[in-house]
Amino acid sequence: MKTIPFFSQVRISAIIGGILFLCVTACNKQTEDLKDDVEDTNREKYIQRIAQYTSQDMSTASSTIMFEYTPGKKISKETVTRYTSNGPLISTYSYSYANGKISEVKYSESHTSYQTTTIYEYNGDRITGREIRYNNGNPDSYRHYSYNEDENYYEVRDGLNRDYWYFTDAGDLRILALNAILPTTHEYDNKAKGALYAYRDDLNTVHIMALSSKVFTVFPRKSTTTGSNTISFKNTFDDQGYIIESTTVGGTSYSKTIYTYD
């Protein structure tokens, strides 16, 4: 039997070792890539920007909402910009927390001197009694809350108005019935994670919604009904179940909302 020279044996061993090293490296990389994919798939997404367009060419947003977060991923600030012929109108909501729940919200408008600090009162995890608003350091108005345990909704009394905020078991907003001169009812899309997904802890959904949902594009709607007129929405979700687009269906007015995450 022919003997392979020693140096040839070394060379062959080195080649085999190199091939094994490349195989192991490739396998490890595939494993790491798969792990990263799984972690990315399971990672919670937090809404960063919501933009609404009322023109079908989508050249310019009619309004935007930008979100900032605390290190613990609780919302710390919303900046709402409405674009008008007189220039952008900017409103901000800044949130402070105590014991995991929102303790106060400071609201200001760039186009006026109006500033309000709202203090919340709680009974456990629920808003109770009243929400006290301070304007320039003085009590300005009160908003009273009454929670219905059986049907999982809040009745919110503000002066003569009576608004009703219905929720899912997960704490997402399901229906908002506004008791105005011509009542309006918003029904929301909760079949996937949506824009409220990051806010469910300690029912902070309720608190954030109570002030900042004046711009209703924060929450993906299924329909809006005013009197006998109903506007429906087509909602699109990504592979992970997060709302990414909402567009009006039919009707005389056009609206498309784009949701962007971190």
List keywords for this structure.
2 domains; 262 residues; DUF4595 domain-containing protein; 2 helices; 18% helix
Low-confidence blocks of residues: none
Approximate shape: globular
| H/E topology pattern | HEEEEEEEEEEEEHEEEE
Report the C-alpha radius of gyration, rounded.
Answer: 26 Å
Q: Give the distance, in angstroms, between the N- and C-terminal Cα atoms.
A: 67 Å
User: How many structural domains can be distinguished in the coordinates?
Assistant: 2
Oligomer: single chain
Q: Helical region count?
A: 2
Biggest sheet: strand arrangement: 1-2-3-4-5-6-7-8-9-10-11-12-13-14-15-16
Quote the average pLDDT.
78
* Helix vs. strand class: alpha+beta
Query: Helical amount among residues, as a percent range?
Result: 10-25%
**How many E-type strands?**
16
Protein name: DUF4595 domain-containing protein
Organism: Sphingobacterium olei
Describe this structure in words.
This protein is of the alpha+beta class and 262 residues long. It folds into two domains: 10-151; 167-261, no CATH class. 18% of the residues lie in helices and 48% in strands. It has helices at 6-42, 204-212; strands at residues 47-53, 63-69, 75-84, 87-98, 101-109, 115-123, 126-135, 138-148, 153-158, 161-167, 173-178, 184-188, 221-226, 229-237, 243-249, 256-261. A 16-stranded antiparallel barrel has the order 1-2-3-4-5-6-7-8-9-10-11-12-13-14-15-16. It is globular and about 85 Å long. 20% of the residues are buried.
